[in-house]
Specification:
It is a single chain. By secondary structure, this protein is mainly α. The protein contains five helices and four strands. β3 and β4 form a beta hairpin. The longest helix is centred in the middle third of the chain and has 20 residues.
Amino acid sequence: MDTECSFCNHRFPISSERCPHCAQPGLFPNVELAKLNDEMAALKLRYNEAFDRATARGCDNVFKDFETCVTNDSKAVICRTLNETVRLANSDRDLYSTYYKEIDAESRLPMEQDGINVDC
């Protein structure tokens, strides 16, 4: 699946980190894919089904209150261990890296559960 570079207007694979034509940073593939009509329709369907279930249980007011709180007061967060949080808080030079970047850099082993790689 391709996308168009907003800088040079050339098309390139949506999964690319950079436009191969002008080297501008690529987009976040998961965000771009979530914007597709099929994905938006599926999200709307799941939302409507959840609201219908809440209404059937007489909880539509709770549903709407929760939706208002999420819309007005939510913040993006990450879940890290205490050791990782302390490491990042105590240094101006240490960087935060994602789990998958650590796996790709071979600085972390994939998690396994019962001998099965759960990262696939």
